[in-house]
Structures are given as C-alpha cells and as structure tokens.
Amino acid sequence: MKGSSLVVSAILFVAVAVLYVLHFTGNGNNTQSSQVRSSNGESAGGLRIAYVKADSVILNYELSQDLHDDFTKKQEAYTTEYGTKRQLFEKEAAAFQEKLQRGGFLTEQRAVQERDRLMGKEQEILKLDQELSNKLAELQQANNQQILDKLMDYLKKYNETAQYDYIFNGAEILIGNEAHNITGEVLTALNEEYKASKPE
C-alpha cells in the first residue's frame, strides 16, 4: 500500500512539475491566447501588424492604370514600326528570289551584292526587334518601380500615425484577419493623392 502511494505521489509530482514548466515558459494552452489579436492589429504581446494586398493596389490604382495605357500605346507603336519594316523586307526578299530564279541579274557578283544587302537589312530588323523589346521591358520595370515607390512612400507616411510594427504584403498571406487588411484604406488614399497631383 505504501509502495503504491509513493508511485502516485511521484506521478503527481512529475505532473505538477510539467504543468509548472508549461505555464511559465508559454508552451501550454496559453500560447493560443497570446496569438489572438485585437481588431486594431495589436496582439496580446503588444505587436501591431497590418497587411496590404499589393496585387489589388496594382490592379485598382489609377496611376497604375494610366501607366498601363501608356505602355500599351508604346507597345502598339513599336509593333507597328517593326511590322512595317519586316513586311517591306519580306517583299524585297521575295522580289530578290524571283529575280534570281528568272536570271534577272546581269552578273553573279550583282546577285551576291543584293543578297548581302538583304542579309544586312534582316540583321537590322532583328536588332530593332531586340531594341524595342528591351525598351518595353525597361518601361515595364520603371512603371512597376514607380508604383512600388508610391506605395512605399505612402505607407511610411501612413505608419507615422498608425504605428504598426510590421506591414506585410498580403499576397503572401493565405489566411489573415480582415481587421488587419488596410488595402482599401491605402488604395483610396493613393488614388486621392494621384488625382490631386494630375494637372486639370
């Protein structure tokens, strides 16, 4: 009987010790309550967070839409410029081929000269295609950077009063409390700033 009460006492001692450790190290059930956040983005530990869905900003920001319209116009102009030169080259190449087949060149040297001229022109067209593609890629990158800069500048000003510890990009957040989502507020402010900066 004494032996069994010693075993029970030992088990109770171990259980109390485990509960004590879990309670004071924060690894027990209290961890869930420490993760609960209030509606203003503050956790029980005092950490304030918010998030912005950057993809929503890009889609609905008026500056982004204007930059996209400008990009599309330049893309169409570049496509037209390249297409016109390409068509002209193809006509000249077809005419050369036809003339060569019917023996229209007085000498073989003259045919070689014309072939070399057309090959040079084709290289120019390929180079133009590469240059226009690079220009469009640079423009797209500059547009993206401009939008990101505007967003970051606004968030820095916004956070002077909001005082969040962290503002995350919501594109990376799969599940989150909507109380921490400040996308609508940020987007409205960005659009108002952009409208105010546009010339009448």
Brief synopsis:
It is built from 6 helices and 2 strands.
Task: Describe the 3D structure.
It is a single chain. It is rod-shaped, with a radius of gyration of 34 Å. The protein has 200 residues and is mainly α. Residues 1-39 have low confidence and may be disordered. It starts with a helix and ends with a helix. The chain has a two-stranded parallel ribbon with strand order 1-2. It has helices at 2-25, 30-35, 54-60, 62-101, 108-162, 183-197, and strands at residues 49-52, 166-169.
- Main beta sheet, described? 2 strands, parallel
Number of strands: 2
Rg on CA atoms, Å: 34 Å
**Structural class determined from secondary elements:** mainly alpha
For the largest beta sheet, what order do the strands appear in spatially?
A: 1-2
Q: Approximately how much beta-strand content do the residues carry?
A: under 5%
Q: How many H/I helices?
A: 6
In round numbers, the mean pLDDT is 80
Give start-end ranges of low-pLDDT stretches.
1-39
Q: H/E order of the elements?
A: HHEHHHEH
Note the gap between the termini: 95 Å
Share of residues in helices: over 70%
Q: Any idea what the shape is?
A: rod-shaped
